[in-house]
């Protein structure tokens, strides 16, 4: 057995060396570590950052210090990190099949099972009924669902960050939350199955055919209750909190940039109080710029990345089979070479092709970030709910602006401090008056 393992190790080492040489690969920048195996020193820094709500800031500072591509050792594995646009394009598009989500799938399995990876609107669209979390009576299934899903989702973030050691994570509250979520969704699935006869799966719930319900369409493909539950929860994870966070972040910025709010209100006033439809929302250009800016500022086999290796980061980089590759959208959207020297400032005008790309007004050019702008991911894994989220957020902003005389912050001059789970939102919430 020892001889076999030794032979396999030698063969694999030769194979990797030849692969690197043939592709001109160079090693990436590695973060200096006291513990280069388990990365306990790095782990302690990460935990401290989570306690202080500085996860995104820590990642951003590392990219500033170590460059666009670097790696670290953590929990027995090597994590490759990049905000090089060509690498992200490779991961999400050109070499999409080389990069799987196996590790993340295992970490999320207790809650989401096997799946594709403003609650009320999302659950009504998915399940055919709203969980009514905004006005749910205390102790009701609706209230319990919201609390259980929130808790389970926050713990999933920790499991994902533990990488290959996620199976060591133990939390009885997490287990209870997963069971509660499953119980409530299973009940909704059972009701839907009972309302859809197996001998007529094409028959919709709504006799008039006026509503599209995701669960209804799923039942046309399968009547397996667990498959239905898993798929619903995977989609719900993407639709829950994200739109609410986008709205919160946008209003957090608007109350701190009154000139932006005045300009947005002037555009919306051209509707003369009319409720916007989809086409109207598309024509509101400044609203689009505001949402773009909010999204930008706040939000398996051996292969190679085209850039990231060598001392200058311009050589191909070898990624071993099973290697973990991550990119920080937060840091990506703050690249000054893409967004200008004021990349960290909230300035919707940067998206206007007729506007200078920086506050100085010099070196005007059109902003074309390409793979440098990924609020909804890209390639085959692009968010399928992108237009739904933007339409929902845009409509809500328009209606609120139409009835508000103005905005004022009620939370003092607090800066945006992120609370990171699977999504990022403002830690203190957004307190706004009019």
UniProtKB/TrEMBL annotation:
PROSITE patterns: CYTOCHROME_P450 (PS00086). Keywords: Heme, Iron, Metal-binding, Monooxygenase, Oxidoreductase. One of its GO terms (molecular function) is oxidoreductase activity, acting on paired donors, with incorporation or reduction of molecular oxygen. Heme binds at residue 383. Its cofactor is heme. The keyword Metal-binding applies. The keyword Iron applies. It holds the Pfam family p450. Belongs to the cytochrome P450 family. This is Uncharacterized protein. It comes from Hymenoscyphus albidus.
């Amino acid at each position: 057995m020892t001889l076999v393992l030794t032979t396999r190790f030698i063969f694999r080492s030769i194979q990797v060396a030849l692969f690197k040489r043939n592709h001109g690969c160079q090693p990436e920048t590695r973060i200096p570590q006291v513990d280069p195996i388990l990365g306990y020193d790095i782990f302690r820094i990460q935990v401290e950052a989570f306690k202080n709500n500085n996860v995104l800031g820590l990642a951003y500072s590392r990219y500033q210090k170590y460059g666009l591509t670097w790696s670290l050792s953590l929990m027995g594995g090597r994590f490759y990190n990049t905000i090089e646009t060509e690498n992200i394009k490779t991961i999400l598009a050109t070499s999409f099949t080389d990069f799987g989500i196996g590790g993340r799938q295992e970490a999320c399995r207790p809650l989401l099972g096997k799946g594709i990876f403003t609650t009320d609107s999302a659950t009504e669209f998915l399940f055919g009924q709203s969980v009514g979390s905004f006005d749910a009576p205390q102790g009701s299934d609706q209230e319990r669902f919201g609390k259980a899903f929130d808790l389970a989702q926050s713990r999933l973030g920790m499991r994902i960050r533990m990488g290959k050691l996620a199976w060591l994570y133990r939390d009885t509250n997490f287990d209870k939350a997963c069971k509660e979520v499953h119980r409530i969704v299973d009940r909704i699935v059972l009701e839907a199955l009972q309302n859809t006869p197996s001998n007529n799966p094409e028959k919709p719930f709504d006799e008039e055919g006026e509503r599209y319900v995701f669960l209804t369409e799923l039942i046309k493909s399968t009547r397996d209750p667990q498959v239905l539950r898993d798929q619903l929860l995977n989609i719900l994870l993407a639709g829950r909190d994200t739109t609410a966070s986008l709205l919160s972040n946008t209003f957090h910025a608007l109350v701190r940039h009154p000139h932006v709010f005045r300009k947005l209100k002037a555009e919306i006033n051209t509707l003369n109080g009319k409720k916007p439809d989809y086409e109207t929302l598309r024509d509101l250009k400044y609203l689009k710029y505001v949402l773009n800016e909010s999204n930008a500022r706040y939000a398996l086999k051996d292969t190679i990345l085209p850039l990231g290796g060598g001392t200058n980061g311009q050589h191909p980089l070898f990624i071993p089979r099973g290697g973990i590759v991550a990119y920080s959208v937060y840091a990506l959207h703050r690249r000054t070479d893409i967004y200008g020297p004021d990349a960290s400032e909230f300035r919707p005008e940067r998206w206007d092709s007729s506007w200078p790309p920086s506050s100085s007004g010099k070196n005007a050019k059109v902003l074309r970030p390409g793979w440098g702008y990924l609020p909804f991911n890209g390639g085959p894994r692009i968010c399928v709910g992108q237009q739904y989220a933007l339409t929902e957020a845009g409509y809500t902003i328009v209606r609120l602006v139409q009835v508000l005389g103005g905005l004022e912050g009620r939370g003092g001059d607090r800066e945006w401090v992120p609370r990171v789970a699977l999504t990022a939102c403002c830690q203190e919430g957004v307190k706004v008056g009019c």
